[in-house]
C-alpha cells in the first residue's frame, strides 16, 4: 500500500506538481475546432510527453474550441482567452485555413509566436510572411512539385483529373503542366457531391483508366464506392489519390483489384511514427488497450501538430536554458507586446530539426522548405511503400522497391488472375472448332482453335495463369473514329477494361499504340496484292482465226476471187502468155494460153499458201498483177504470224499486274482493302504519291471496293469476272490463302514492313513478362512451329506446294487454241476424198460407156487396180480405144491433153 502511494506521488510530483515546486511554468494557448479531435489529442499528448521528460520547465495548456467558418467568433474567443490568462508562451492553431488568418493577425499584432499546421492557402506562399507565425505544413510549391513528379513517375500517358475545388487546382498546377489539359490525353473534371457517378461514367465512357483524384479524404471512400458500382475498380484501373490522408482509409472494404497509389508525409515505416501512434493512441481511433497500432492510421494534421508542439517546446526549452524566457499578459486591444517572441520565432526558423514524424523541418523565407513525400501503393488492401520524393532532390522520385520485389509482385498478380483475352474470328488466327461428335456443344475456350489460341496457351503455361477467350463485338480489329473520338473492336475492349489482352492478326500501328500497349511482334509481314493466277482460257478451236478480224478474212476471200478473175483476163490480154504448143515447130499456126480459170485460181491459191505453183505467168502485165497479190499476201501472212503469237500468249495469261505501281497505273482492274483495318489506314495516311493515287481510286470506286473481312476480299478476287479485282492484303494472310487455293497468288513484294502484336492496357504490369515469353518462343522455334502447323498443315494447308506459277515464258499453244486448224485440214481432206470418189465413179461411168461394159464390172476392175498398190502403171482406155493395136501395151506414156492440159493415167 505504502509503496503504491509513494509511486503515485512520484508520478504526480514529476508531472503536475513541478511548477508547484518552483519549476518555471508557461502557458500555451491552443485553438481547435469541435471536429479536430485528433489534432487536439496530438497536441495534448505532445505537451504531456514533454512535461513528463523535462524537469526544467513545465507547459500548461489552455484550449478553446472555435467554429471553422466564423472569423469573428474566433477573434472573440482568442481575445477572451488572452484576457483570462496571465500570458502565453505561444498560440497554437487553428487547424482550419479559413480562420487561420484571424489568429495569425492577432499573434502578429501582439508579437506572440503562432504555431500553425494547416495546409497552405491558395494565396500562400507569395502573400505570406509573418514574423511570428511558424507553419510546419510543407511549402505549397514543394507539394505541387512532389505531386507532379510522382505523377510523372507513374508514366501515365492519358489520365483524368477529378478535383474537389479551387485549392485542388492550385495543388495540381504542376501536374497540369506535364501535359496540356484539353488535349485528348488529359481530362479535367470537377467531382460534385453527392452523386459522383455522372462524372465517373463520362470518365469510363471516354476510356480513361488512369485517374487522379484530388479530394478530401473524408469523401474518398464514397467516391471509390461509386466507382466500384460502375465497374471502375476493376483490374488495370489506376488511381492516384493526392490526399495526404488517403492511406488511412480502409481499402479492404472496397475489395477491389484496381491499383491505388497515394502519398503521405508521415513515414509509416518509421519508429517515431509508431511511437507517436502508440503513445497518443490517436484519440478515439485506436482502443487504448490495442497492442497492434497501425501507423497507417496516422493522419498528416495530427502528425504536424505533434511535430509543431515538440518543435516549439524544445526550442523554447533550449532558449530558456540560456536566457530565462519572460512571458507577459497580452491583450488584443492592449499596447503590450511579447518580450522574447521575436528571438524565439527567429530561433525556430534557423534551427533545423531532423527527427520528426513528418521528416526534417527546415525553414527558408519563413516557410518550411523540407518535404519528403512517401509514395505508397495499396495492394490487396495493404500499404506498400514504393518510392519517395524529397524536396532536397526535386527532380527525381527514388524507388525503394527492388526490381526483384517488383517482379515478384507482378508474378503474383499474374498467377492470381484469369486473363480475359479478346479476339476475333479469322482464319487461321481464331476459328470455331468442329466438335468430333456432331451433337457435342463446345463451350468456353474449347469452342475455339487457331494460331492466336496456341500462342496464348503457350504463354499461359509459361507464366502459370489461366485465360478465357472472348469475341469482340462486330468482329472488328480496332479503328479510331475521329469525330466521336472513340475506338472500336479489340482496342475498345482493352480500353474498356473488358479484356486484359487482345490477339489476332492485329497490326501494331502508331495510332493504336497511342491508346494501348503492344507486346513485341510475334509475326512480321507487309501489305501485298492478292490476285488470281491466269485462268485457263475458254475453249476456242478456231482461235487461230482470231488474229485477223472476220472482216479481214472476208476481204481476203473477196480479193482471192477478184484476183483470180483479173489474172484470167490479164493473161488472155498479155501476149507473153500465149505460147507455142509445140516446141519442135518454130512457127506454129496456133498459140496456146494455159491460163484458164482453173489454173489461175490454182496459181493464186498456191501463192496465198506460200507454196508457189509449177506454172507462172510470163506476160509483163500478168506478172505485175500476180506480184501485187504476193505483196498483199506477204503483209497479211506476216501480220497474222505476229498477231497469232501475241494473241495466244495474252489470252492465256489474262490481264497482267506485276506490282502496286502497275495496279495504280491502270483503271481496268479494281482493287480494294479491308474496311477499318491497318491496310486501309496505310493508304489513307500515305505520303507516297502512288499510294495516294491508289487511295483516291479506292475511295471513289463505285460500287465500293472495301470489304468487311479478309474472307470477303478473297471471295471477291476469285469471283469477279475476268480477274478484274485485286485485294490488298497482309502477306501472312495471303500466304495462308495461297497455301490452300491454287487459283490465288501474291503479286509483287511487300509495300511496307510491320508486325502483329498482343494488345494490352498502357503500362500493364505483365507486359514485360509477356514480351519475355514471345522472345523465348521466337528463339526456341515455337512460333515457327505454330506457323507451320496452322499455315501448312491444318485445314488443307500445303495443297499448292508443287503448283508451278504460270509465266509467259512457258506458255504453250494448247490443242484448244489451234484444234481448228486440224478441223480445217480434216474437212479439206474429206472434201478431197469425196471429190476423188466422184472422179473415180465418173471414170468408171466413162469407161463402161466407152467399152460397153457393165458399171459393176468396170467398178470391180478399177477397184481391184486401186487395191494393187504395187502397180504404178495403168492402161489408158482412151488410147486403147483409138489405137486398138495398142491394147496389149504394157507400158503407157503420158500425154498432155490439148483440150484440158490434164494428165491422164494409162491402164495396163
Ligand atoms: N491486320 C489488320 C489490322 O490489324 C487487318 C487486316 C488489314 O487491314 O489488311 O487492322
UniProtKB/TrEMBL annotation:
<comment type="similarity">
    <text>Belongs to the glutamate-gated ion channel (TC 1.A.10.1) family.</text>
</comment>
<dbReference type="Pfam" id="PF00060">
    <property type="entry name" value="Lig_chan"/>
</dbReference>
<feature type="transmembrane region" description="Helical">
    <location>
        <begin position="514"/>
        <end position="531"/>
    </location>
</feature>
<keyword id="KW-0407">Ion channel</keyword>
<keyword id="KW-0732">Signal</keyword>
<protein>
    <submittedName>
        <fullName>Uncharacterized protein</fullName>
    </submittedName>
</protein>
<keyword id="KW-1071">Ligand-gated ion channel</keyword>
<feature type="site" description="Interaction with the cone snail toxin Con-ikot-ikot">
    <location>
        <position position="776"/>
    </location>
</feature>
<feature type="signal peptide">
    <location>
        <begin position="1"/>
        <end position="22"/>
    </location>
</feature>
<dbReference type="Pfam" id="PF10613">
    <property type="entry name" value="Lig_chan-Glu_bd"/>
</dbReference>
<keyword id="KW-0812">Transmembrane</keyword>
<keyword id="KW-1003">Cell membrane</keyword>
<feature type="binding site">
    <location>
        <position position="512"/>
    </location>
    <ligand>
        <name>L-glutamate</name>
    </ligand>
</feature>
<feature type="binding site">
    <location>
        <position position="679"/>
    </location>
    <ligand>
        <name>L-glutamate</name>
    </ligand>
</feature>
<feature type="compositionally biased region" description="Polar residues">
    <location>
        <begin position="882"/>
        <end position="908"/>
    </location>
</feature>
<feature type="transmembrane region" description="Helical">
    <location>
        <begin position="552"/>
        <end position="574"/>
    </location>
</feature>
<keyword id="KW-0813">Transport</keyword>
<keyword id="KW-0770">Synapse</keyword>
<feature type="transmembrane region" description="Helical">
    <location>
        <begin position="628"/>
        <end position="648"/>
    </location>
</feature>
<dbReference type="InterPro" id="IPR015683">
    <property type="entry name" value="Ionotropic_Glu_rcpt"/>
</dbReference>
<keyword id="KW-1015">Disulfide bond</keyword>
<dbReference type="GO" id="GO:0038023">
    <property type="term" value="F:signaling receptor activity"/>
</dbReference>
<dbReference type="GO" id="GO:0045211">
    <property type="term" value="C:postsynaptic membrane"/>
</dbReference>
<dbReference type="InterPro" id="IPR001828">
    <property type="entry name" value="ANF_lig-bd_rcpt"/>
</dbReference>
<feature type="disulfide bond">
    <location>
        <begin position="742"/>
        <end position="800"/>
    </location>
</feature>
<keyword id="KW-0406">Ion transport</keyword>
<dbReference type="InterPro" id="IPR028082">
    <property type="entry name" value="Peripla_BP_I"/>
</dbReference>
<keyword id="KW-1133">Transmembrane helix</keyword>
<feature type="site" description="Crucial to convey clamshell closure to channel opening">
    <location>
        <position position="657"/>
    </location>
</feature>
<feature type="site" description="Interaction with the cone snail toxin Con-ikot-ikot">
    <location>
        <position position="684"/>
    </location>
</feature>
<feature type="binding site">
    <location>
        <position position="507"/>
    </location>
    <ligand>
        <name>L-glutamate</name>
    </ligand>
</feature>
<dbReference type="Pfam" id="PF01094">
    <property type="entry name" value="ANF_receptor"/>
</dbReference>
<feature type="binding site">
    <location>
        <position position="678"/>
    </location>
    <ligand>
        <name>L-glutamate</name>
    </ligand>
</feature>
<dbReference type="InterPro" id="IPR001508">
    <property type="entry name" value="Iono_Glu_rcpt_met"/>
</dbReference>
<dbReference type="InterPro" id="IPR001320">
    <property type="entry name" value="Iontro_rcpt_C"/>
</dbReference>
<feature type="domain" description="Ionotropic glutamate receptor L-glutamate and glycine-binding">
    <location>
        <begin position="428"/>
        <end position="496"/>
    </location>
</feature>
<feature type="binding site">
    <location>
        <position position="730"/>
    </location>
    <ligand>
        <name>L-glutamate</name>
    </ligand>
</feature>
<keyword id="KW-0325">Glycoprotein</keyword>
<feature type="region of interest" description="Disordered">
    <location>
        <begin position="879"/>
        <end position="908"/>
    </location>
</feature>
<feature type="transmembrane region" description="Helical">
    <location>
        <begin position="818"/>
        <end position="842"/>
    </location>
</feature>
<dbReference type="GO" id="GO:0015276">
    <property type="term" value="F:ligand-gated monoatomic ion channel activity"/>
</dbReference>
<feature type="domain" description="Ionotropic glutamate receptor C-terminal">
    <location>
        <begin position="418"/>
        <end position="793"/>
    </location>
</feature>
Amino acid at each position: 500500500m505504502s509503496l503504491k502511494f509513494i509511486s503515485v506521488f512520484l508520478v504526480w510530483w514529476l508531472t503536475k506538481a513541478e511548477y508547484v515546486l518552483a519549476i518555471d511554468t508557461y502557458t500555451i494557448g491552443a485553438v481547435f475546432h469541435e471536429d479536430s479531435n485528433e489534432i487536439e489529442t496530438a497536441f495534448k499528448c505532445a505537451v504531456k510527453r514533454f512535461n513528463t521528460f523535462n524537469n526544467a520547465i513545465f507547459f500548461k495548456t489552455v484550449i478553446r474550441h472555435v467554429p471553422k467558418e466564423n472569423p469573428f467568433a474566433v477573434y472573440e474567443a482568442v481575445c477572451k482567452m488572452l484576457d483570462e490568462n496571465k500570458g502565453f508562451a505561444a498560440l497554437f492553431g487553428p487547424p482550419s485555413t479559413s480562420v487561420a488568418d484571424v489568429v495569425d493577425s492577432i499573434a502578429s499584432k501582439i508579437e506572440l509566436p503562432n504555431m500553425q499546421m494547416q495546409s497552405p492557402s491558395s494565396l500562400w506562399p507569395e502573400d505570406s510572411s509573418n514574423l511570428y507565425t511558424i507553419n510546419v505544413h510543407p511549402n505549397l510549391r514543394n507539394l505541387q512539385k512532389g505531386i507532379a513528379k510522382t505523377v510523372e513517375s507513374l508514366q501515365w500517358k492519358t489520365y483524368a483529373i477529378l478535383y474537389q475545388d479551387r485549392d485542388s487546382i492550385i495543388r495540381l498546377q504542376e501536374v497540369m503542366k506535364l501535359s496540356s489539359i484539353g488535349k485528348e490525353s488529359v481530362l479535367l473534371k470537377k467531382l460534385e457531391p453527392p452523386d459522383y457517378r455522372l462524372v465517373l461514367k463520362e470518365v469510363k465512357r471516354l476510356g480513361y483508366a488512369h485517374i487522379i483524384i484530388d479530394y478530401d479524404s473524408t469523401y474518398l471512400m464514397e467516391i471509390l464506392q461509386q466507382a466500384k458500382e460502375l465497374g471502375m475498380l476493376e483490374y488495370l484501373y489506376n488511381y492516384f489519390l493526392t490526399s495526404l490522408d488517403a492511406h488511412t482509409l480502409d481499402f479492404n472494404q472496397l475489395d477491389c483489384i484496381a491499383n491505388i497509389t497515394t502519398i503521405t508525409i508521415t513515414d509509416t515505416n518509421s519508429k517515431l511514427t509508431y511511437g507517436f501512434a502508440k503513445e497518443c493512441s490517436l484519440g478515439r481511433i485506436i482502443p487504448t488497450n490495442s497492442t497492434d497500432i497501425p501507423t497507417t492510421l496516422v493522419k498528416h494534421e495530427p502528425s504536424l501538430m505533434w511535430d509543431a508542439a515538440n518543435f516549439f517546446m524544445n526550442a523554447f526549452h533550449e532558449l530558456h536554458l540560456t536566457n530565462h524566457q519572460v512571458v507577459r499578459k497580452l491583450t488584443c486591444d492592449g499596447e503590450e507586446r511579447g518580450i522574447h517572441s521575436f528571438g524565439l520565432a527567429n530561433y525556430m526558423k534557423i534551427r533545423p530539426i531532423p527527427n520528426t514524424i513528418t521528416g526534417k523541418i527546415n525553414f527558408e523565407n519563413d516557410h518550411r522548405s523540407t518535404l519528403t513525400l512517401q509514395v505508397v501503393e495499396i495492394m490487396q488492401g495493404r500499404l506498400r511503400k514504393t518510392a519517395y520524393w524529397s524536396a532536397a532532390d526535386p527532380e527525381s522520385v527514388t524507388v525503394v522497391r527492388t526490381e526483384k520485389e517488383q517482379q515478384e509482385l507482378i508474378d503474383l498478380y499474374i498467377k492470381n488472375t484469369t486473363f480475359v483475352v479478346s479476339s476475333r474470328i479469322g482464319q487461321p488466327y481464331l476459328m470455331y472448332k468442329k466438335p468430333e461428335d456432331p451433337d457435342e456443344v463446345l463451350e468456353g475456350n474449347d469452342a475455339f482453335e487457331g494460331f492466336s489460341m496456341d500462342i496464348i496457351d503457350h504463354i499461359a503455361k509459361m507464366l502459370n495463369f489461366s485465360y478465357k477467350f472472348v469475341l469482340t463485338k462486330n468482329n472488328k480489329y480496332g479503328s479510331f473514329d475521329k469525330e466521336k473520338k472513340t475506338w472500336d473492336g479489340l482496342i475498345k475492349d482493352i480500353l474498356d477494361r473488358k479484356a486484359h489482352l487482345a490477339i489476332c492478326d492485329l497490326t501494331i500501328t502508331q495510332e493504336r499504340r497511342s491508346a494501348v500497349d503492344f507486346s513485341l511482334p510475334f509475326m512480321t509481314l507487309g501489305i501485298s496484292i492478292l490476285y488470281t493466277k491466269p485462268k485457263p482460257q475458254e475453249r476456242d478451236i478456231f482461235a487461230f482465226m482470231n488474229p485477223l478480224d472476220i472482216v479481214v478474212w472476208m476481204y481476203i476471200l473477196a480479193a482471192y476471187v477478184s484476183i483470180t478473175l483479173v489474172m484470167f483476163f490479164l493473161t488472155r490480154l498479155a501476149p507473153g502468155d500465149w505460147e507455142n504448143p509445140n516446141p519442135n515447130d518454130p512457127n506454129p499456126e496456133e498459140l496456146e494460153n494455159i491460163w484458164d480459170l482453173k489454173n489461175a485460181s490454182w496459181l493464186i491459191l498456191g501463192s496465198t499458201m506460200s507454196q508457189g505453183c509449177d506454172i507462172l505467168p510470163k506476160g509483163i502485165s500478168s506478172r505485175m498483177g500476180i506480184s501485187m497479190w504476193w505483196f498483199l499476201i506477204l503483209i497479211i501472212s506476216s501480220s497474222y504470224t505476229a498477231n497469232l503469237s501475241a494473241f495466244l500468249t495474252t489470252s492465256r495469261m489474262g490481264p497482267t499486274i506485276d506490282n502496286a505501281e502497275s495496279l495504280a497505273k491502270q483503271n481496268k482492274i479494281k482493287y480494294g482493302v479491308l474496311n477499318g483495318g491497318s491496310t486501309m489506314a496505310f493508304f489513307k495516311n500515305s505520303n507516297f504519291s502512288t499510294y495516294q493515287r491508289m487511295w483516291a481510286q479506292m475511295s471513289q470506286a463505285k460500287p465500293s471496293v472495301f470489304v468487311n473481312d479478309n474472307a470477303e476480299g478473297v471471295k471477291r478476287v476469285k469471283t469477279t469476272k475476268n480477274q478484274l479485282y485485286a485485294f490488298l492484303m497482309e502477306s501472312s494472310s495471303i500466304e495462308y490463302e495461297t497455301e490452300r487455293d491454287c487459283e490465288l497468288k501474291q503479286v509483287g513484294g511487300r509495300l511496307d514492313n510491320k508486325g502483329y502484336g498482343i494488345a494490352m492496357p498502357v503500362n500493364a504490369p505483365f507486359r514485360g513478362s509477356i514480351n519475355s515469353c514471345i522472345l523465348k518462343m521466337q528463339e526456341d522455334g515455337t512460333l515457327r512451329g505454330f506457323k507451320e502447323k496452322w499455315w501448312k498443315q491444318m485445314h488443307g494447308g500445303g495443297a499448292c506446294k508443287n503448283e508451278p506459277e504460270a509465266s509467259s515464258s512457258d506458255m504453250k499453244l494448247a490443242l484448244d487454241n489451234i484444234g481448228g486448224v486440224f478441223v480445217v485440214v480434216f474437212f479439206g481432206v474429206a472434201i478431197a476424198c469425196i471429190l476423188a470418189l466422184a472422179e473415180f465413179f465418173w471414170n468408171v461411168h466413162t469407161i463402161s460407156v466407152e467399152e460397153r461394159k457393165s458399171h459393176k464390172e468396170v467398178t470391180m476392175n478399177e477397184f481391184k487396180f486401186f487395191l494393187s498398190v504395187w502397180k504404178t502403171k495403168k492402161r489408158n482406155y482412151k488410147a486403147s480405144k483409138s489405137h486398138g493395136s495398142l491394147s496389149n501395151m504394157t507400158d503407157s506414156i503420158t500425154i498432155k491433153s490439148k483440150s484440158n492440159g490434164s494428165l491422164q493415167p494409162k491402164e495396163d
